[in-house]
Amino acid sequence: MTFIVDLLRRGDEHGNINVPIVSILLKNKLIDHIWISRDSTSNLCSPEKEGNLVTLVDVRSTKRYKWITSIILTVKILILAKRKNAGTFFLSATPLQNLIITLFTIFQRNSIKHYVLLHGELSYLISPNGIGRLLGKFFLSVTFKILPFSKTTQITLAYPVYVALKNRYKLEGNLINLEMPIDRVNSFENPKLASRKLRIGSFGVHSGDKSSHLIYDLNKYLFNDNDRFDVVTIGVANTDFIYDQDPMVTHYCKGSLGDALIPRSQFVAELKKLDIALFFYGDKPQYEFISSGAFVDCISYGIPFAALSNNYLIHYTQKYGEIGIVANSLADLAVKLINISRDDSILEKYKKNLENARNERNFDRFEFDLLNLY
After folding, report:
1. Are domains 2-182+362-371 and 193-360 of this chain identical in fold?
2. Which of 19, 120, 134, 333 could form an S-S bond across to 327 if both were Cys, CB 3.0 to 4.6 Å?
3. Distance (Å, whole) CA 200 – CA 304
4. What is the CATH number of domain 193-360?
5. Domain 2-182+362-371 belongs to what topology?
6. CA-CA distances (angstroms) from residue 143 to 28, 35, 114?
């Protein structure tokens, strides 16, 4: 049996991966108990079963909670799992929690399995800004060095991240990859380009790390053809990205990252209008270890991408066929976008390959891969 644990995420955070995992393990009666946030959308238990199966956790974003309270809860859960001969599946973990889990299972004599899902905290290995992230890098580095001696398996959510982590720490076992399942959404059928502009834009959280400001520079390259393009951003921004720096770039669902997020329905409504999604972060080192939720959305909604060259998107282009364009510079990106604006068939080819990718990354395939862990 398995204890499902998430002491960090609230609401719909990581719901696109947590909900499928919980639903599959519940359906196959592999869960003994769940520790989860009070408002988590991943709590799929009916109210009458909740009392026996679920412990609702008051997840907080304070330093005290992350560094003390959640650590104490982690240790208590691991001790209880040992007493009940149960495995654990941590849907997320801080670097310190991860280290504790891995250390704990080094001394385990039986073959019970323990899993930890890896997320954006892996970026600390490359760009640890601040004391907290420096400590996070240290805890993660120790974790991966002792991982071969433990009964813990770490799970990445994108194959390029798996390869990068495996190569960095010379890991042969205790590390696996589960490709995120695609939430199959009926893609929006935009009118033919002959009767309208090509809508291109970035979406999600806009930031300096992602080089989101390059959308303004790209628009300058498109200036002589701006009657062919509708350039937009969709989503909030942190303090590194400034809105309204170009009157020809329109901003939808804009706001500050620290404020309340835009309702998902409003965000999706604008996302469906995109013809091509833009990615500007290129081969920035910190993105070597981060799986892209925005890329998963592109497959889900059948939206081709245009990106500065990076290994992550190159891998999936090689895997699924042409599902977007990768360029070495903004000038090159602009040329390729102009070519697409003049030829509908290029976009249609990308969309057909995206449909094949959606079929391959379906829920049944993910369920098969997940249950193989047991």
Report:
1. yes
2. 333
3. 10
4. 3.40.50.2000
5. Rossmann fold (3.40.50)
6. 31, 23, 14
Any residues with CB less than 8 A from the CB of 105 and at least 6 apart, and which?
114, 150, 151, 152
- Check: CB of residue 261 under 8 Å from CB of residue 238: no
Q: Are 333 and 218 in contact (CB under 8 A)?
A: yes
Q: Is the pLDDT of residue 238 over 60?
A: yes
In tens, the pLDDT along 199-215 reads 999 999 899 889 999 99
Distance, CA of 249 to CA of 251 (rounded, Å): 7
Domains of the chain, by residue range, sit at: 2-182+362-371, 193-360
**To the nearest 10°, the Cα dihedral for 23, 24, 25, 29?**
90
Element (H or E) spanning 230, and its range?
Answer: strand 229-234
Q: What is the mean pLDDT of residues 283-312?
A: 88
How far apart are the C-alpha atoms of 43 and 54, rounded to whole Å?
Answer: 8
Phi then psi dihedrals of residue 257, to 5 deg: -60, -35
Q: Is 49 helix (H, G, I), strand (E, B) or coil?
A: helix
